Amino acid sequence: GAVVSQHPSWVICKSGTSVKIECRSLDFQATTMFWYRQFPKQSLMLMATSNEGSKATYEQGVEKDKFLINHASLTLSTLTVTSAHPEDSSFYICSARELAREGPQHFGDGTRLSIL
Amino acid sequence: QKEVEQNSGPLSVPEGAIASLNCTYSDRVSQSFFWYRQYSGKSPELIMSIYSNGDKEDGRFTAQLNKASQYVSLLIRDSQPSDSATYLCAVRGYGGSQGNLIFGKGTKLSVKP
Q1: Digit-coded pLDDT (tens) for A14-64
Q2: Which of A14, A22, B7, B15 has the fewest CB atoms inside 10 Å of its own CB, making it the most exposed?
Q3: What residues are paired with B36 via a beta bridge?
Q4: Cβ neighbours, 10 Å, residue A14
Q5: Mean pLDDT to the nearest integer, B35-44
């Protein structure tokens, strides 16, 4: 089945640090990747949609200057949390959809980010 | 506003019973429907996809779709404690915003030994 690799799994860092999270589709090409955030006991929240070779589309209320998204190839998208603060601590999950638009989204294992 | 509604639960069933999870959606032209399972602290994993009316079976799982009623369900037969998780219903509309899935908030299932 389609595999999405997300790295790193865990990040613990000091306030003010920038953190980069990578999302790779390992055995399929993904023109579109999605970034979600999930706080404890809450539902998935879509942050942005990332299209290969173009600017990401951010959901309302998500600061694009704080959450930088790059989708440079059909298999790689990155999310950089710039100058992270404790309130950015959350579970960040990427997902990717195969080129056929009707197909499902496949999720990475997520990155648990803790800002001290 | 396109919406996907699920009962948050928790839905509690005894081991071996059938668990029935339900989902309704608001966008009448939705074309693709998915069920994901999410264990606590983990990311969602795809269980079933269904695109046409009727039933689709895969092992102990059966997805049922009724587009006229805008309703999709997931049945889990012979429920096991390992099935205890949150089940997310996801819907994609026709030509929807970049093909985004709209997720329900999930139903928490608890299977008691």
Answers
A1: 999 999 999 999 988 888 899 999 998 888 999 999 988 888 999 999 999
A2: A14
A3: B46, B88
A4: 8
A5: 95
CA closest to B86 among chain A residues: A43
Round to whole Å and give the CA distance between A15 and A84: 6
Report which of A53, A52, A101, A92 is spatially closest to residue B97, judged by C-alpha positions: A101
Chain B interface includes A102 (CB < 8 A): yes
- Counting every residue written for chain A, the total comes to 116
Query: Does residue A10 sit at the B interface (CB-CB below 8 Å)?
Result: no
By C-alpha distance, the chain B residue nearest A57 is B98
DSSP chain A: ---EEEE-SEEEE-TT--EEEEEEESSS--SEEEEEEE-TTS--EEEEEEETTS--EEPTT--TTTEEEEEEETTEEEEEETT--GGG-EEEEEEEE-SSTTSPEEE---EEEEE-
Mutate to test the interface with B, among A7, A107, A112, A113 (most CBs of B within 10 A): A107
Higher pLDDT, A1 or B35: B35
